[in-house]
Records
---
Amino acid sequence: MRPKLRGWQILLAGLLVGALARAVPAAMPPVNVIEHGIPVPAGEAITPSATVDADGRRIIVCKLAAGGKTSYLFIDAESGETEQLPAGLSGSGSNGVLMTPENAIFDSVGGYFLRLDIPTRTVRRLGRVGGVIFGGGFVRTSDGTVYGGFQPTATLVSYNPATDTYTDHGQLNEESWRQYLRPLAVDASGWVYGGIGMERMQVVAFNPATGEKRPLIPEKNRKRGYQPVIFKGTDGQVYARADRYQFGGVLEIYEDGWGWHVLSEGRATPIAEPPVGGVRQVNHVFPDGSHFSGFNVLDREVLVHDVGAKEPRRVRFSYESPGVRIYNLVAGPDGRVYGSTGNPLRFWCYDPAGGEFWDRGVAPNDGHINQFVRQGDRLYGITYSQGYLFEYDPSRPYALEQNPRLAHRADEAGEQYGRPHAMLAHPDGRHILAAGHASRVLLGSGMLIYDVKAESGQIIDRARLMPEHGIYSLAALPDGQVLAGTSIHPSTAGTAGPARTAMIYRYNMETGTVSGQWPLSPETPAVRELVVAPDGLVYGLAEPDRLFVFDPVSEEIIRSETLAGYGGIAGGQAPRCMTIGPDGAIYALFQEAVVRIEPATLAHRAIARPGEAISAGIAMLGDRIYFACGTRLFSCGLNE
C-alpha cells in the first residue's frame, strides 16, 4: 500500500503551491491512492526465431514488448533457461524484426535503428530515425546491407556491415498524411522497392547507387489500401500490385487500380499474374534441422521438435515483465473489477476481497478491447480493429470461445467503428451502443446498436449520422434518446475533414435519425466524455481540459470552463473517464488526478493524485474508484 497523507498535510501542500487544484510535483508522494498490482505480468512476442548461441547451443530469440519497454529474450531450447537483454530504449518500436545469416537481428526501438548480435548478446544503436513511430519492413541485399522502412514519413534507412555505414535516405514519398512503408523488396540489380499505404497506395523504386527515388504508380491509379503487395518470387524477380483493399471480410477491387507488375531496374512492367510464388522467411528451424512450434509467451512454454524424435518436448521458460498496458476496466455485478490489456489482448479480473488477479485469453484475439460496459449482469466489450462485440457472464466459469463469447461480428464493422472510442449500456436494459472511428483512413463513424435479448445487432452507417465526425462519447437522456460527443480527429493514416470543431448531436433510437446538433465553442477537436447527472443536465469533457454543461431542454451549452492543474483528460483510445458517484457528485479522471466535481456549482478539487499518469478507467465499487496507470491497477477513496 502506498503511504497516505492526512488532511492537514494535503492542505499544507495546497497552500505551498497556491491552490488545491494545482499539480503536485512528481517528487511528492501519492495522495489517497492504493496500488493493487499488475493484472497481466506478460508481454508480446515479436518474431521468435530459432538459432544457436556462441557455443552452438540451440536457442530461441524473440523481441519482447511489454509496458512500453522492449527486451530481447534468449531461451535455451534444451533446458528452458533464459536470459533477458533490455533494448535500453523506451517504446516497442517495430512490429517485426529481421534475422540475418550473420546471426544478428535488425530492429527499431525508440526511434533508433538497432542491431542485436546474438553470439555476444549486445545491442548496438546504428543510427537515429527522426520522428519514427514504429518500423514497417526490413529487407537484406546480396551484399549484406539491411534496409528498414518506417512510418509515419515513409523514411528509408540502411546499414552496410561491410563498411559499418548507416545511411538515412530520407522520405521515399512525400504526402500530407501518415505513410506506412511496408513491405520492402530488392531486385537482382540492387534496386530497392517500397510499398506505401494507406490513404493512397504507392510503390517507390530506390536506386542505392544514385539515390534516385522513382514513384511507379500513376496518380490516377493510386487507391486507398493498407499496403501494396510486393514480394520477391522464387525465380528472383520482384512482383507487385496495388489494385485492392481488404479489411476483415470486406474486399474492394479497383478496376482502375494498379494491377500485377514485375519490377526490375526501377521500372514496372504489367503482367497478367506472377508465374511463381514468393520466397518465404523461415524462422522456426534450427541449423541442425530441428524446429519449434506452439511458441506461447503468455503461458511461457514452447514445443521443441528434436531431429528423429516422435513427439515434441514441452519446454517451460520464464521472464520478467513490467506488465501489459491496461486498456479498460469496469465494475462487475459480483463486486470484482474486470478489464483487458493490449497488446497482447488478455481478459483479467481483480477481486478486492482477496486482492487476487487472474487473466485469460480471448478468442478471436485480434487487436484489443477498447472498452467494457455493464448491462444487467453481463459485461460487453468492443475490439479494435475488427469491431467484434464480446459478452461475458461473470456468474459462469471462464471458458475460451464460450465465456467471453463473440456476440456480434460484421464484415463492415471495421470500416464503421473499427477504432471504437465509445460504448453505452442503454438504460432501457436491452441495448448496447458502440461507435468511434473507422480503423483506418475514413472520416466519421457508424454505430452498432446491439439487442442483448434478441442477440442481434444493427449497424447504422456513418452517412445516416454525421459523416465528417467520429464519435468519442455516448450518453442516454431520460427519454431514451442518445447524445453523441464527436471528434474531428482524422482516422489513423487519414486526413482531416472540413469540420472545424467537435459537436454534440442527438440520435433518436425510434426514428433512427439525427434530431439535433450543437457545435462547441470555443472550438475543440473532441468531446471526450458525456454523463447525465441527477439534475437532468449533461456534463461533458472536451479536449484538452474543458468542462461544459449542456441543457437538453433548452438545447444549449449553459456553462463552460477550463479545469486547470490536473493535466490533460485521461482515457486513451476509449475515454471512459467520468462517472456519477453514489453521492451524486461527478468524478473524472485526468492524467495527474482524480477530480470531484459538484454538479450545482462546478466546484472541483483533486481527491487523489497517484504521482504518475492516469491512463484508463473508470470503475466504481462501493466507496472506491479504480483506474489504471499504464500496466498497473490503482484505486482511491471518494474522500481524501
---
Amino acid sequence: MTTDGTKLRALVVYAAVVPVALLLGVLLASPAEFTHWAPITLFLLLLLFPLIMKWHRPLLFASWNMTAVVFFLPGHPRLWLVMAFITLTTALVQRALLRDMRFIYAPTILLPLLYLAFIVYLTAKLTGGFGMAIFGSESIGGHRYIEMFGGIIGCMAMLTARIPPQKAMLYVGLFFLGSLTDIIGNTINFVTPSFYYLFLIFPVDVVSGDSSSGMIRFYGTSVALMGVFWYMLARFGIRETLGGRNLKRLALLVAVAVLTSFGGYRSFFILMALTFVLVFYFEGLFRSRFALPAVGLCVAAAVIVIPLADKLPMSMQRTLSFLPLKISPVARLDADASTEWRIQMWNRVLPDVPRYLWLGKGLLMDSQELDMANMEQSSGRSESSAGARTASDYHNGPLTTIIPFGIWGALGWIWFLAAALRASYLNYMYGEEQLKKINTLLLAYLLARTILFFFVFGNFYSDLGIFTGIVGLNLALNGGIRKPVRVHTVVRPVTLSIPTAFKPAHTAAVGAGKP
C-alpha cells in the first residue's frame, strides 16, 4: 500500500512538472515570447510556495546583495525586492495566527524609516506620481521609488524574528557572499551562447573602459570580491588573521584586496581601506602587539608599489590615482577627467538646492527629455553630465538626498543614520561574545559607508537598501538593540557586635541576668 501511494504521488508530481518543463523549454527557445509569461507567473509561484514558506528568510538575506532578477514578473524586479515583500507578508500572517509570535523591538530604527517612507511617498505624489514605463507611462523613474520602499520593507522583514546565534555565521555568509553572483554578469564575453539563459536571471554587466589602452573596469567582479573581503573580516577579524599560525588567511585577504583594485574604482579601494582601519581600531589593536606587524605590512606594500606604480595594470593605476604616486599619464588623465566631470556637474546643480529645499524634485523624469539629453550629450551639443543631471544621478550623496527630497528627506536620512550608528555601537559594546567579530565588522562597515556617502561617493535612492540591509542584519543577529546589563546589589542589614566593656552599665546588668 505504501509503495502504491509513493508511486501515485510520483505520478502526480510528474503530471504537474512535465507540462511546465515543456512550456519553459518552448519559451526559452523563443525569447520573443517572454511577454506571454504573465499568465503562468501565478502557477509558477504556486509551485514554489512550499519552498518559499520554508526558506523565505534565508533567501531574503542571501538575495540582498545578489544581482538576480525575477524575469517572469513585469519590470523584472530584483529578487531581494520580491523576497522582502514575501517575508514581511508571511510574517504578518503568522503574527495574526500565532499570538505568541513577537517581532524584534527597535522603535529607534523603525520610526525614521517610517518617516522616510512618508516623505518619499508624499514627494512622489506632489511631483508627478509613480511613473513606470512598463505600465505605459511616458514618465519613468518609478522603479527607484519601488526600490526605496523595498529597502525599508526589507529591513522590517529582517526584524520579524531573531537569527539563532548558532546560525549567525551562516546568515552573514549568505548576506555578503551573495555578491559573488555579480561575477556572472561579467562573463558575457567568455561563455558560449548555450549559457545565455543565465543572463535572464543575472543581468549582463557591461565591462567599461578602453581595451586599446588597457583601461578595462570590471564593476561586478569588484563588488563580488568586496563581499568576500567583508565576510573574512566578519568571520576571522584582524586579530585572528594576523595572529594565526599560518598565513593563509592573511594571504587570502591581501589577494582579495589586490584583485579588487584591478576593477579601477577608487571609491571601492577607499571603502575597503577605511573599513579595515576601523575594524583594527574597534578591535583595540593600535596599542597591541599586532600594531607592529600591521605597520610592517603597510610599509612592505609601499616599498613594492611605489617604484612599480607606473608599471602596474592601467585599471590598478586608476584605483591608486588618489594617492601621491607616479602613475601612467593615461590613467591619470582618465581619473582626473572623472573628477572634473563630477565637479562640473556639482557646480551646475548646487544653485538648484534652494529651489528644491522645501519640496524636492522627486525621482520622476520624462523619457523623451532623458533621450534628448543623452542625444545632445553624445553629439557634443551639451555637457557630458547632461544625462546624469536629468536622471538625478549626481554622484554625490548629499545632493542626491536634498534635491530629490528636500530638507525633509535630508533630515530623515540623518535621523536614520544616527539611529543606525547608535544601535550598531550598542550591539558592538554589549552584544554576545560569540557575535563580537561580526558586530565589529558591521559597525566599521556602516561607519565607513556613511563617511563614503558624504565625502566620496553616494546615491540616496540606491544606497538606502545597502544601509537598511546592514542595520537589519545587525539587529536580527543581536535580537534588537542591546543595552548594558544592570547588576542589582542586594543590601543586607549588618549586625554590629559591641564588646561588653563598652556597653552602658544597665545594658551590661541586663545581659548578666540581674533584675
---
Amino acid sequence: MGLSPKLVLRQSQSLLITPQLMQAIKLLQLSSLELSAYVEQELVQNPLLERQEGEAGTLDAGPSDAGPVSTDAVSDDGSAGNEPQNETADATESALADARPDWTSDQLETSVDDVAGNLDTSAESVFPEAVDAGPSLSTPVQGPTGVTGDGEHPNLEAYATKEATLQDHLTDQLNLAVKEQAERLIGVTLIDSIDENGYLQAECDAVADQLGVPLQIVTSLLERIHTFDPAGVGARSLTECLALQLAEKNRLDPAMRALLDNLPLAAKRDFAALKRVCGVDEEDLIDMLGEVRALDPKPGRRFVSSPIEAVVPDILVREEPGGNWGIELNPETMPRVLVNRTYYATINRATLSADEKTYLSEQLQSANWLVKSLDQRARTMVKVGKEIVRQQDGFFAYGIEHLKPLTLKQIADAIEMHESTVSRVTSNKYMATPRGVFELKYFFTSAIQSVDGGDAHAAEAVRQRIKKLIDAEDPKKVLSDDQLVKLLKEDGIDIARRTVAKYREGLRIASSVQRRREKRAALAV
C-alpha cells in the first residue's frame, strides 16, 4: 500500500502562554514589597493607569469624569467592589473587542492555574554568629559634593546624612598615624582589602608584590592598623582577632594564649582538656571563657548599616464570637489601581495614526489585565488563607503543639486549584494571627506517625515538644536522644533517634554530653 500526501483538517485546543498570562502568574508569587514596586513601575509606564486614593471602593474627586475599574479590598467572602463605567467608556471599549480577549475572573483563574501547573570550624561553635554571612555592605550614601544640584549653595544635608564606612573610619586614623605619602598608599591598599567583618582578605606578600615594596614595610603597616579602632580590625583569623582585643586590654597572658590556640576544645565544651593545656583550675577557666565570649568576633560589623524591613502581614486573622476565625486581606499590602477610561476615550477620539491607535489599544489591554490580575491574586490569597485557617484551627485555638501535618496538595485539592498555584501564593506572604505573625509556609509541615495509629503529628509540633523536654530536664539527669525517643513514644509519637537528633540540631541544642558539661560548669559557679 503506497503512501500519498493529503490534507487533513483537525480541531484541537491548546493553551498559549501570553505575556498577560505570564504577568498574572508572576503577580501570584510576589511579596507585598515586590508587588508595590511592580505596580509603581506600571503606573509610570502606562498612561491609562492611575492610583486609587482614599477609602477602598471610593474615588477622590479628580479631573476624570469616567467611572474607572478598580481593585477594592477583598473581604473573606471573596467579594470585591463594583466596577462603575460610563456609557462613553463602554462604547469605546467595545470597539476593542477584537483586539483583546474579554476574560472573566473565573477564566483568568483557570488559565493561570493551568499554566502555573506546567511551569514549574569548631571555633565557630564558640561564636555561632561568626559563621553567618550577615548582611552585605549597604550602598553607602554618596558623599557631600559641597554644592547642591544648582551649583550655588553648600549641600549641608549631604554632610548630615553621610554614613561613615569601616574604610572611611580606618583611613581617617591612617592619615593621622602615618605621614609619609608612600606608606599611606600601602595602608590604603590594606584597608581596602578588609571585609565588612573587619578581617584582612589579602596576603601581605601579594600586596608587597603588587606595590613593589619590601614585605617588611607592608607587615609593619598592618601592625599599625592592628592598633586602630575597632580593636581586632585587620586580623587574618578569628584567633588573631580575639588576641588583638585581649592584648588591648592587657589580658593576653600565656594561659589565655593557650585557650585561643585551642578554641575547638572550647567549642566541644571539653573543659578537662582545656584546664590541662591552659594550666588553670576550673574557676579560672570559667573566668577566661567569660572574657573570650565578651569579645567581638566581627569588629567591623558595627559600621555595616542595612535597612531593617519590618514584616507587613498580607492576611489578618481575628477571633470572632462563637469561636470562629475571620480573615481579611491587609489593605496596606493591596495596591489599588484604576483604568482611566475617560482619558482613553478622549485620546481615542483624536486624530491618531495607525501606530498610535495600536499603542493605545495595547496600553488599555495591559491596564485591564493588571487590574484583573490584582483582583484574582487577592481572591486566590483569600481562598488559600481561609483553607489554612480551617485546616489549622487547633493551632489558632490552642497553640503550636496542636499544629497538624499539612501539604500544599491538601490545600490545592480543597480549593480546587493546582498545587503550584498554592505554592506561589504562599511564598513570601505572611499572616498576622493572635499568636503572632507567621509566614504562610510555616503552616505546611511533614507528618510524624502516631504510635497507636491515630492522627499523625506535625513535625514542627514535635520539634517544640523536644525543646520543652530539654528545657525542663534535670541538670543532674540530662536527657540523651534515646531517652527523648522513649518519652516521645510515651506521648504517642513514633519517631526515630536520628530524627530526634536532626530536630535537636536544627533547634541549635547541644548534645547531651555537651549540655551535661555546661550545666556542671554552671552549677560550679
